[in-house]
Specification:
Layout (H helix, E strand, L loop, with lengths): L7 H14 L5 E2 H6 L8 H13 L4 E3 L2 E3 L5 H29 L3 E7 L14 E6 L4 H15 L8 E7 L10 H8 L2 E4 L1 H10 L3 H4 L15 H8 L7 H23 L5 H7 L2 E2 L2 E3 L5 H25 L1
Parallel strand pairs: 5-6
Antiparallel strand pairs: 1-3, 2-3, 4-5, 4-7, 6-9, 8-9
Helix pairs in contact: 1-12, 5-10
Length: 312
Amino acid sequence: MRTTSFTEVQLAVIKVLAYYKLFDYPILLQEALENLGVLITNETRFESEVTLLKRSGVILETNGYYYLDGDSSIIQNRIEGEVRAQKLLKTAKRYSSLIYLFPFVRGVFISGSLSKGSISEDADIDYFIVTKTNRLWITRTMLVAFKRIFLLGSKRHFCVNYFVDEDNLIIPDQNVFTATEISTLIPMHGNSVCHNFLNANAWIKDVFPNMETKQFTLKKDNLLKRFSKNIVESFFLSVISEPLDKFFMKKTYQRWTSLYSSSLSKDDFEVAFRTHRGTSKNHDKNYQKRVLETIDANFNQALIKIGQNSNA
């Protein structure tokens, strides 16, 4: 099978597997379908095209798991990672509930590797947090202070590195990486806000047209959350909160600039450390760029290898 003979669907399948090769993560057929970049109207035909790729040696399959290359040991690694994820999810639920009790927190998602359902032995628990408008930086500062004081700075179970507020729900980096991150978020608290966030980012259907819409209903706010929202928040008078929120944003940005700006280009720094009144993102390794570049490299290497095998 020559590379020029691939259909659009087959190229899309190879690209999906190139993405997950980065994580040594074999995927099931249904997962491949959901992460495909082209719309599938006939699943039987889709399965036939995948089978043809497998029979031609372009992709590999073992026990229903598909991958681009390597050996089947990655399947056992995934299964073991799923067991670890189920155990860690219990801890994540407790911390999600704690985070939600903080003033101005309106929604909490579990993100990162745990939201994908399979984790490494040293995985952190990442959270994506939605706050009240113009209170993001106060909220973030309180949560970071809690982590440093009560958790001694450990981010093992408390990694809070992405915040948006209720007026800034749309994620601007609209690509396969962010679409994957959004589609795998696990809503934990703040039913209406979590729905609003996912609805605001419905653009992910342009990236993954076969992705099922996430269905969920979260519990109503308990007494402690209502106390935090109605009583504790009232102590943060607007005349104080507005300048305080701006102050925390300014100081945080100055700190990030001093620590990381020299190792990143200006454009990369602005993406990795997005700092606005309604958005806080700090990914010091600029993971998004690394992932996107590696996906393209894996995809191109796969096509080159296929072409070489075809000409052999």
